[in-house]
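Narrative progress, year one. The postdoctoral researcher (J.K.) led the effort to move from monomer predictions toward full complexes, under supervision of the PI. The following entry was the first complex the group processed end to end, covering 648 residues in total.
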Amino acid sequence: MNFNLNKTQELFRQMIREFAEKEVKPLAAEIDEQERFPQETVEKMAKLGIFGIPVPKQYGGAGGDNIMYSIAVEELSRCCATTGVVVSAHTSLCMSPILQFGTEEQKMKYVPKLASGEWIGAFGLTEPNAGTDAAGQQTTAVLDGDEWVINGNKIFITNAGHADVYIVIAMTDKSLGTKGISAFIVEASTPGFCIGKKELKMGIRGSATAELIFTNVRIPKSNLLGNVGEGFKIAMMTLDGGRIGIASQALGIAQGALDETVKYTKERKQFGKAIAKFQNTQFQMADLKTKIEAARLLVRSAAFREDEHVANPKVNFSADAAMAKLYAAEVAMEVTTKCVQFHGGYGYTREYPVERMMRDAKITEIYEGTSEVQRMVIAGKLFGKIK
Amino acid sequence: MKILVCIKQVPDTTEIKIDPVTKTLVREGVPAIMNPDDKGGLEFALQLKDKFGAEVTVVTMGIPAAEIILREAFAMGADRAILLTDRKLGGADTLATSKQLAGVARQLEWDLIIAGRQAIDGDTAQVGPEISEHLGIPQITYVAGLEYNPKTETYTVTKETEDGHQILEFKGKALLTCLASAVKPRYMNVGGIVDAYSKEVEVWGADRLGLPDEELGLKGSPTKVVKSFTKELKAPGQIHEVDAEAAVELIVAKLKEKHII
């Protein structure tokens, strides 16, 4: 068993760390303050191939693996959680289901443009009345001749308004329950599709989170993703991958806060010495570091398992992804909260990045399945069917 | 167009540790990077590749672990990479290094050789110019800009000087030494990174150079390092709050005292 990154992954980590430090970090406070989508960073990332990391070369991707993708989201989020989630939602929630469930024609049509970053992707599952209970879909898709007609609303959609392609989950036969749900590929330019209310959020404020409104949106019959009735399964399997992205984001936020706090506590002097010299600081920071490393191993292990799944679809990584996300998210919240405490009054101000990091960390316990949902997934795997 | 770019792996630190006995650099425990000026030079070469399809070969002389900067060069877009490594070449000063690199250049076809101005570990700025002397080609140092006109087959170079810059134009073969500050090197491309380890790094030994043993490595290095030390911080200067005339007198007196004027 080898816990080290391979040479390619290590070279990639070197590049993405440098990119995040030089290009992403300087903008992090500004895009948070202005609640502005980091378009200029998106363009730079597109040029480097960051939007197509785990995509085979035949579809215009970099031909990398999910460990590299996870490292990318981690390193970007270490400097700016907003930038991390732009890549995560695009990669895990839009490109990945097309690669996994799409026809060859759909893959050739959409993946190269998404992998190159020419197009940005998003995913619409959540509705006002279908959050954790994702089966309660009210958005409908009705077949009319050669077209599907979609009506309804989606909320809290990451990358909304900036994405060119959306994976949309909708009810095609309510009488069948979750088996009556299907998945579709919707282009943003389709008439009847528009962006509604933009959310004003606590954290990841540069990330665009908004409502999608479908009013008689007609898409070709061929834009059905997978088979009719497979939408719920596609959504759940998509979220398995997404959770590794969010776990990586949480890990990056935690690492970023820890790095800032190591620096701060070595500089900040109280009672005549650097606060890093106090045993309270040392012991607490040692605990945080240990938890971050434990989270990293879980995240890497889940990404490794996902790579195995790509090679052999029989490999299931749901519980691995859920454990990685559950743990990394809770570690991120704990680490950032304690790091604010180490900064004292300064930590509560926007003068230091830990304030933003604490706000950013919270969402990782909520989106792409709350921590409670992760526990349901893990328990489901642990207990199986209980008589 | 074929371009040969000389790059070097250097320790990424401003505080270089020196072995007190051998007077050479201690490399253990210090992160190693591609020398910044060399990376600037590689960027200039890659820009010529982007615009005119130049074929870019990178060469480095160093320990086997220096291979990583060649992989990095692949991931940035270099086409071919040569690692010159041999125990016989160890301990080379700038003279031996430049002879060895010129030896590599003699085995290859190229139109242009690009090197960094200087390496952040040695700061000599000698290797580039010495290579050009060994090869008998013109050199332009402190290059901050490089353009090529395919119609006239001429290069236009901006050379930085202490008080400004010169614009120079030339045709034919030459060696340029580049400044890191003049250009922003591209990041490695993700697809390039994925391919970097499947490409071949050519490993060359001393036998490929056609040079006599006495010109190689420590034997071929007349430079002897007598003493190495970390530069100490200077004491703060003196502040004299006087009017302009008194200031001139004061400065002149101080310069005379130090026999500067």
